[in-house]
Fold each of these.
Amino acid sequence: MQFGIFSVSDVTRNVLTGKTPSEAERIDAIGRVAQRADETGLDVFAIGEHHNPPFFSSSPTTLLAHIAARTQRIILSTSVSLITTNDPVKMAEDYAMLQHLAKGRMDLMLGRGNTVPVYPWFGQDIRNGLPLALENYNLLHKLWREDVVDWEGKFRTPLQGFTSIPRPLDDVPPFVWHGAIRTPEIAEQAAYYGNGYFANNILAPNFHFRPLVNFYRERFEHYGHGTKEQAIVGLGGHAFIARNSQDAYAQFQPFFEGNPLYGSSYSLEEYAKGTPLSVGSPQEIIDKTMSFREGFGDYQRQLWVVDAMGLPVETALEQVELLATEVVPVLRKEMAALRSPGAAEAPTHASLVKAKYGDAPARQPTPNPNRGDNLTGTRPYQDTAEGIAAKLPLVG
C-alpha cells in the first residue's frame, strides 16, 4: 500500500501572524515539503491544478518535473489534473514527457475540478463538463496506446494520422486514477478501463463516498479486470498530528477556525469526529485511518493534506516527519496484517512494465524520418507495426 501527501496549493493567511505568503514563498515551500516526503520514505507526493487565486499550481507538470529533479524515489502525481479544460493531446504529450523526466515514478489523477469559471477561461461550457471529461479521457487513453491515431469527437478538431510524442516511457502509459466525489459516470469510466478510482474523502461525513467506491468495485469486476477486492482504490484525507491529542487540537484550532471554509460553521472537535479529518496523536491518526479500511475495504493509496489553511512551512515539514516516522510505519504493519490475499498491490511503473513484457526488454520507440511538414513517411517509428500507416493530410 502507498502512503503520501497531497496539496491543493492554497495560498492562505497565517492567522497567528496575520501574514499571507507570496506565491513565490508557497511555491518554494511546496518543493521543500515534497523533498522532505521523499527523504522520510513516504511513497507519493501529489499536487492539484488550479487557475485562480488563492492557489498557485496552474502547471502541475512543470512543478512535478522540478520536484522530480530534487527527489530520488517518491512517486509524483496530481490531485487533480483537469481533464475537462485541458486538451487531451497536450496532456498526452506533457505527462509522457514528465514520465520520462521522472524515470517512471509518476502517475496522474484526472478530474473535473470544482471551479466553475475555469470552463469559459479555457473556451469550454460547464454544462458539457461530464461529456468533456468522458470524451477527453477516451482520447487520452487512445493517444498513449496507439502510434497512429485517427479520431473524431464532439469537443475538439479531428485527428488524422496523429502521433503523440514522446511515446510513454517503455511504451507503458502512466497509471491513471479517476478522482470523483459525486459522479457515478466517472467511477464507471475508471472501472471500464481498469484504472484506479480516488475518493477525495474530505469535506464530507465519514464514509459518505462508500457507495461510489462500492459501485466502482462492482463495475471493475463486471468489466473483467479482477474481483471487487482487486479494484484499485485511493482515499484522500486531512491530518494534523502532535505528540498528544491536546497539543494537536490546541495548535490546529486557530487555523481551522480562521479558515472561511470551516471556521464559521463548525467546531474543530465536531468536525474531526464526524468527518475523515484526522486530528490528534499519532495513535489517533492511525486509528482513524484504520477505520477507513473498515469502511472501504482494502485499498491501495492513502494521501493526506498537511500544508493547507495557512500553516507555516515549518509546521508542514513537521507534519511530514510525524506521518513518516510515527504513523505510516504502524499503518503499513497493521494494514498488511489484515490485508486480504486477493487484494491488489498499488500499481507502479515497474509493475506495469513487468505485466506488459515479463522478462523481455521493454520497447524503446525510435523515430523514422520526419513526418511533419515534409511528410516523408507514414510509419512514425522503426518498429511500428507494418499494418499501421498514417493516412496523412495532403499538403498543397
Amino acid sequence: MSSTEPKIFEVGGAVRDRLLGLAVHERDWVVVGATPESMTEQGFRPVGKDFPVFLHPESGEEYALARTERKIAPGYHGFTFHASPTITLEQDLRRRDLTINAMARDEAGHLIDPFNGQADLDKRLLRHVSDAFREDPVRILRLARFAARFAPLGFRVADDTMALCRDMVDSGEVDALVGERVWQELAKALMAPAPEVFIRVLRRCGALAVLLPEVDRLFGIPQPPRHHPEIDSGEHVLMALQQAARLEADLPVRFAVLVHDLGKGITPKAELPRHRGHEARGVPLVKALCERLPIPTACRDLAMGVTRYHLQCHKIRELRPETLLRLITGLDALRRPERLSDFTLACEADYRGRLGLEDRPYPQAAYLAEALRRCQAIDATPFVNDGLRGAEIGNAMERARLDALADLRADPDTAG
C-alpha cells in the first residue's frame, strides 16, 4: 500500500453481520493514509469531537481516520487518541473490543482478519482482541450486550474474556462508570432478543453487584415454591425478562419487569420465603435506582406503578371495588389510559415468568381494561344537572365508579 494513497475499508458490525447472514442496517468505514485536510477537500464533513470522524457527502455514512488509543487515566474517559496517515489498518483494528468486531473488508471485498474474528464467529465465541480490553470498563457492558443480542445464535463469552472482566471488576475499573453510560448500554441490552443474558454475564464477572446491586441481591433469595417453582427471586426476574422479550414489549415494560421485585431483596430473613409487603418496600428502591442511573421518566413511572401494584393485578378479580379504583387512580390511568396496556403487559411477563407457567393465559389484562372503560364511562354532566358543585361532583363520580366496579365484579361472564 502506498503511503500517499489513502485506502478505505469497511469495518466493524457490518462485516460481522454479513458473515453471520444477518441484515446490515448501517456501515462504518476506516480510512488509512489520509489526513483531516484531505478528507475535507473531498467534501467529507467533520463531526468527531475527540478524534477525526467524517460524514460522506452523499451517503452520510461515517468515515474515521485510522487511529490508536492510549490509556492515561482511570475510567472510560481516560484515553488519548492518535490519528495519523502512518497508522495501519491492523493497528486500528487492534484497539477494538471483540475479535468479531475487529474484521474489515477492502474495496475489492476481501476479508482482512488479523485477530481470527471469523474463527470466533464459527465457534460462537465472544473474545477480547487484546489485553487493552481491560482499559475501558464500558467494554464489559458491551460484551454483555452482545451476549444478549447473539444468544439465540449460540454465542457465549470466552472463558479468558470472562476472567479478564473479573479482574477489571476486582481492580475497581467498573466503579468509574457513570450512570448515564450504564443506562445507555442497559437500555440497548433490554431490547435485545435475550435481555436476561445481559444480567447473567454481568453477574458472572461481578459487575452486577457494582452497577445494579438491587438486582444482584435478589439471587439466592427464596420464594414460596407453591407460587414460584423456580424458587430463586433472581431467576424469577430473568424468566420474567424472557417473557417480556417473548411478548415483544417495549423498553419501559422491560425495565419495569427488571426492577418490579426489588423489595424481595430486603425481606427480613425471618419472614422468608414469604415476601409480604415487598411491593411497598420495593418502591423507594426503584426510585433510588432511577435517580442514580438516571432513568427516563416514562420508564421510571411505569416501573414504580408495576412495582407497587403487580400483585394486585394478578389477583384483580378478588379486589374490592375500592381497592380496584385505587389501583386505577394510582396508575393515573383515568387521565392517561395508554399507561394501562404497558402496565398489564409487564404484569403478564411477571406472571408467566415462573417455571412451568410460561404459557399460562393472563385474562387479568382484559378485566382491568374493562374496569377502566366502565370508570371512564362515568360522566360529570348528570351530577352537574342535579345541582351538585365542586367536591360534591367528585364524590358522586367516585361513588358511581365504585358501583360500576361492583357490577363488574358480580358479572360471572366477565373475563378475569
Amino acid sequence: MTTTRESTPPEHTPSRPLTIAQIAELAGVSPATVSKVVNGRSEVAPETRALVEDLIREHGYRRQKKRPTAAPLIELVFNELEGGYAMEVIKGVEQVAREHGLAVVVSELPDHHPPARGWIEGVIGRRPHGVIVVFSGLTRAQREQLRTRDIPVVLVDPTGDPGHELPSVGAGNWSGGLSAARHLLELGHRRIALITGPAHALSSRARLDGFRAAMDAAGVPTDPELVRQGDFSAEDGLAHARSLLALPRPPTAVFAFNDAQAMGVYQAAHEMGLRIPDELSVVGFDDLPMAQWLIPALTTVRQPLTEMAAAATAMVVAIARGESPAQDRVELTTGLVVRGSTAALAA
C-alpha cells in the first residue's frame, strides 16, 4: 500500500505542535540545534535555521511547561532615526514603558522595508516584552517567528495595509489631507502643489486621497503637473519646490506631506526671493516642535505621534499579559494648526 501523509504518526500532524526533540528528528539535527534556533542564537547555519523555522511554521512548536521569562524590554524599530518624528515616537514609548518598569531598545534598520533578516535573531535572543515597528512592516516569516515565541508586535504608522494579523496604531491621514486642502481653498488658492510621500506609504496615499476629495467637492481639478512624489526628507522638499516654483505658472500654495519637506519648500522660496505667506502659502503635516519656530511659523496638520506611540506601547504591554486588545486597528485624529505660513490669495 502506498504511504500517504495521513499515515504520519499523530505526534507529527499539524494539529498537534511538536516538541524540540520531534522537530530535531524531522530536521535531522540535534535538539540542541533546534533549541538555538528557537532562542535566536546565532551559531546555526542559515540553511539549517530556515529548515527548522519551516517545520515550526508547518507543525507548531510545543513550548516547555514553564514559559521563559520575558526580559523587561520593549524593542522599538525605525527605518530612520533622524529628525523630530523619531523623537516624538520615542517620547511616547518611553512614557508608558517607564510606568511598567520596562527599558526601551531602539534599533534603526535603514532602507529595509521590512526589517533585515539578522534583526529577527537578535530580538528572539533578547526575548523582549514586545516589539513596536515604526513606519515599516514585517515579512510573514518574521511574524511567525515572533508569534511562535509569544513575542507580541504592534505597528505604528504602518507603510502598508496592516490587515488584522498585527495590531496597529495610525492617524487620520485622509481627514488631514482633506483639512489642508479645504484651508487653502477657503483662502482662495486654486493652483495648489503637492509634495507627497513615498508610493509605498499608506499614510501618503491617504493624505493624497483626502486632498483630492476636498478639491473634487469644490469643483477644482488637481493639476497633475503640480503633484510631485517625495520621500519625506527636507532635501526632497527643496528639490521639488525649486522645480515647482520655476514653472511658467507656478503654484500659489504648496501642501507638503510632512514638516521636513515643508522646510525644504521654505528654503526654495527664500532662494527665489518669494515671501511666505504673501507670495506663497505653505502647509505641512506632523506638527513637530520645530514647526512653530520656523519664520513664519508653519501651518500644519497635527499628527499625534507621541500619543500614537503611547497607545502602541500600552497595547504591547496588555498583549504580553495575555489580554486581547479592544481593537486591532487604532486611529487617532489629526487636526489643522493654523499659523503664519498661509494667507489669502492676493487679488
Amino acid sequence: MKINKMLATVGVTGMLLGGVLAGCSSDSSSGSGGDGDKTVVELAGWGASPEEKELLQQTLEAFEEEHPNIEVKHEVVSDQYMDVMKTRLVGGEAADVFYLDASEAPGLIDTGVLEPLNDYVTDDFDLEDFQEPLLNAFKSDGTYYGFPKDFSTLSLFYNKEAFEEAGLEGPPETWEELQEYAEKLTVDEDGDGQPERFGLGISQELARQFYKFQPHGGQVTDSEGKAAFAGDNAIAALQPVVDMYTDEKTAGLPSDVGTDWGGDMFGQGKAAMVIEGNWTIPFLENNFQQLEFTTTELPTINGEKATAAFTVAYVMNKESEVKDASWELISYLTGKDGMEIWTSKGFALPTRQSVAEELGYADDPLRGSFIEGSAYAQPWQAGKNLPTIMNNFDNQFSSALLGEQSLEEALKKAQETANKEIGSAN
C-alpha cells in the first residue's frame, strides 16, 4: 500500500519526559545483556531517511547522557516489519521497546503482548499536552499501551502558479468548491479526454478515503469489528470522487500520468492539487525546488472538518525484563525534550502541542495546516480486521473508478467478501 510505503520512507515519527530515575531502577542489567553496571534496553523500528536516522541518533545520545545507567541498542528491521515483530513476540525474542503503527495497534493490543502503561505515568508526563485523537489511537478501555512519537495528517497541497493562471484566489473551503476548482485547473490541450494536468490527484486506497465517511454519518466497521461501509452514507461520501475521476475527468491517479504517488504527480505538474501528508514537503523541496506551492486544511465535507491522521507509538513488550528502564526510554522519546530533538527538522511532526508551539510549526505556512488538523483528525485504524477490510475495499473501489461496476455494487461486494473472510478467520 502506498501510504505504508511513504510512512516507512519518512518515518512519520516523536518523544516525552517523566518516570522513575534510572539509577533507582529495579531492572537487572542482565535482563537484556547488560554492559557492566548499565541496563541495556533494546529498541526496534523500521528504516528512515538518512536525515531522520541522524535525528534519532541525536535523540538517543541525549537520552543516554541524561541516563548514564541505561544503554540503548537500536535495531532497524528493514523488511516486513510487523510480520517480524509478531514472530518475535510469539517466540519471546522481541525488543523491549518498539514502533507500533496506529493501524496495527488494535490487533496487537487484543493479543495481550503489550505492557499497559497507565501505572508508569506521572503528572510530569503531562498527558494533556498530547493531541487527543493521536493519544487515543493507542488507548483501549481506558488503558494506554503506547504514546505517539510523531504524526502526519492530510492537507491539500496546491500549485500557486496554476491557481493564479486559473484566476483562483485562495484555496477551496468545501468539497463542492474543490470540485469546481478541479474543473478549472484541469488542462487537456489536445482535447483527447486524457488531461496533461488533472485538477486533483487522488488515491483509491481506503487509507485515503475513510475519513470522508464520518461527516456523512458513516463508518468503516461496526461494533463487532466487521466491515460496515456499504451504506448510503459511504456512497454519499465517495460518489464525488468517482464522478470526478470517471465522468468529469478532473481527477486522476498517479498511475494515469506515469508516476508512483501523489507527491511526484504534483511535483511534475501533472496535478494542480493533491491531498497528501507532511512527508511530501521535504520530498518537494528536495526534488522540485522551482515549484511554488503551499498547503491548507482539507475542504470541509458535508459541513464538517475532516482529515486522517497517521501516527506511530513507542510501546513496551510485556515480556521485557527491563521495564523500568524501558519506560524511561519511552517517556523521554515521547517527552518534551526528546520530541523536540526528534521533530526539530520538520521531517516528523510533534504530537505534543507544546513542542509544536516551541518549534513554530503551528504558524508555519507549510506545516501549520497539519498541526491544525491534528485536533480533529481520525486516526488510520479500524479494529483488528483492518487488513482484510482494506484489501477488499481497495480492490473493489478501484473497479468502481474504472467504471467496471457502480460504486454501490463495489462497496456491497467489498463488504460482503470482507465479512465472509472475517467470519472464516474467526
